[in-house]
Every structure is written in C-alpha cells, then in structure tokens.
Specification:
Blueprint lengths: L1 H13 L4 H4 L14 H11 L5 E5 L11 H10 L3 E5 L11 H4 L3 E4 L14 E4 L45 H17 L1 H19 L5 E3 L12 E5 L4 H10 L6 E3 L3 E4 L8 H15 L1
Parallel strand pairs: 1-2, 2-3
Antiparallel strand pairs: 3-4, 5-6, 6-8, 7-8
Helix pairs in contact: 3-4, 7-9, 8-9
GO molecular function: kynureninase activity; pyridoxal phosphate binding; transferase activity
GO cellular component, one term: cytoplasm
InterPro entries: Kynureninase (IPR010111), PyrdxlP-dep_Trfase (IPR015424), PyrdxlP-dep_Trfase_major (IPR015421), PyrdxlP-dep_Trfase_small (IPR015422)
Length: 287
C-alpha cells in the first residue's frame, strides 16, 4: 500500500539514509500469495543485528492475511529491534494484545472497521515500558504535562503515556464521531464480535466454494485472517465487470486493480443474509 510506504521512505530520507539500502522488504515465495511466518522470522534472524525497526502491518491489505504478530515481536526483540505495527486493517477486526505481546508501538486509522467516517481521527499505542524515557520525538503542546503547560517555561514534560506523542489538539468533531462509533463495540464486546466474524467469513467462504472464475487469496486458516476475503478474478476486465454488477445490486465491496475484489462482512452490522445476497449477486455477475 503506497501510504505507509511513503511514510517509511520519508522517515528514512529524513535521517539522511537511502531507502534503497535501508529498507528490507519481504515478499511471498514464488507462486504463493502469503508471507510464511517462518520466512519472516528467518529474515529477522539473518539481518536482525543490523535492523533498527521491524515494522509490519497487522493484516495485509491486499490478501487479508493476519500476521502472527506475537511471534514476530518476540523474534525481533530477541535481536534488539524495536517493533511497530500498522493496524489499519486489524483494529476493530481481529484480537490484538499489544501490551501482552510487548509491542513497542502501533498506529491505526479509525475509518475502516471502527466506522468513524472519512477523515476520522487516527490512533496510536506506545508500550508503557517506554513511559518516562527521554525518547526522540517531535514534541507539541498537547504532549506535555497539562498541569504545567501554562507555566510558559518552555520545558517539555512528557505525559507518561502515548499521549506524550500528541502534537496538537485533536478535532472535537472527529473525536465525538469516533466515540459514537465505539459505543456499539463496547456493548457488543470484542470476543463476541470475533466469534461472529469467524462464522460470517466461514459462511462466505463456503458459499463461494462452488463458484469458479476466481481464486481466494486470503488464508483458509481462520486464525490467519480477519473478516476479509480477497478474490482474484481470472481474465482481463472480469473483475471490474463483476464489481459494477454487484454494486448495482446494492452490494458494497472494494476493488483493487487490476483483478481483486475484497469482501468483508463486518460482524457489528452485517448478517448471514447479507453474505448470502452478496454471493448470489456475484454468482449472477459471473454468468
């Protein structure tokens, strides 16, 4: 995904380093769609002594693969690396135990599974083991101790939490929108949502199985995926034809050119009837 790639490359350049020689990118093995955990751990073991930061997505946006984040964090810390995760497609979707796993930091958007709306406020996690440390950071008014910020002595006193990394005040409107979205999550509870999600996506997978004309890129192991199934369509132009056809029938999904449609039944509000309707529409579009 270009967005985090841009952020990473710009950080590397900010430190006067060359992205071509300072970033290690991993790819699946030939003719495979997913990164094997063993290959990720092998890369950390091989180059870990020279790696400052191991940065991974929680869920791979294109294939829907849910990485084994705890194993990656353990291996990276064993080599002295800092561990950070991009959880844009994971938060609100799969179980996350960042503190328990010892993850150093993570960040995410809230407009996907957390339903905050376009332009919604982002989120960040910083492990409490870093609280009180004199970490290099871009400091701002909203990261300093609120009890002393009006003393105007020009001394930054970091709040002993992730809040110390805030630079400016968050938008009230986007914060309230997120709060309104999180209330249903609190009442539904993450374990119950995950249990329903596993059933919804398994049902989607079962209904798709008899159909042809595409390959499901997402892992078949429920523990290695969230709500999403990514369908790789065969043949030039087929994907967009199918996408427009099912969209015309009220099925909201997502296309990634040239050939992939992502279907993600969200357990907070999608039903098994929604899944059945989506597959019926897709089957009709393929005829």
């Amino acid at each position: 995904l270009p967005i985090p790639q841009f952020a990473i490359e710009s950080q590397v350049k900010f430190h006067n380093l060359d992205p071509a020689t300072s970033i290690i990118e991993l790819n699946p093995r030939p003719n495979e769609y997913h990164l094997r955990t063993e290959d990720i751990l092998a890369a950390i073991e091989k180059d870990g002594d020279e790696i400052a930061l191991v940065l991974f997505s929680g869920i791979q946006y294109y294939t829907g693969q849910f990485f084994e984040l705890e194993k990656i964090a353990t291996a990276a810390h064993a080599k002295g690396c800092v561990v950070g995760y991009d959880l844009a497609h994971a938060v609100g979707n799969v179980p996350l135990k960042l503190h328990e796993w010892g993850v150093d930091f993570a960040c995410w958007c809230t407009y996907k599974y957390l339903n905050s709306g376009p332009g919604g406020i982002g989120g960040a996690f910083v492990h409490e083991k870093h609280a009180g440390k004199d970490l290099t950071r871009f400091t701002g008014w909203w990261g300093t101790d609120p009890s002393t910020k009006f003393e105007m002595d020009n001394k930054f006193r970091p709040i002993p939490s992730a809040a110390s990394f805030r630079v400016s005040n968050p938008s009230v409107l986007t914060t309230v929108a997120l709060h309104g979205s999180l209330e249903p999550f609190r009442h539904a509870t993450p374990p119950a949502l995950r249990a329903k999600s596993l059933l919804l996506t398994a049902y989607l997978e079962k209904l798709l199985a008899p159909l042809s004309g595409f390959t499901i890129l997402t892992p078949t192991d429920p523990a290695q995926r969230g709500a999403q199934l990514s369908l790789l369509f065969h043949g030039d132009g087929v994907m967009m034809k199918v996408f427009h056809s099912i969209a015309a029938q009220g099925i909201v999904c997502d296309e990634r050119k040239p050939d992939v449609i992502r279907l993600a039944p969200a357990p907070l509000y999608n039903t098994f009837a929604d899944v059945w309707r989506a597959v019926e529409a897709l089957a009709a579009a393929l005829k």
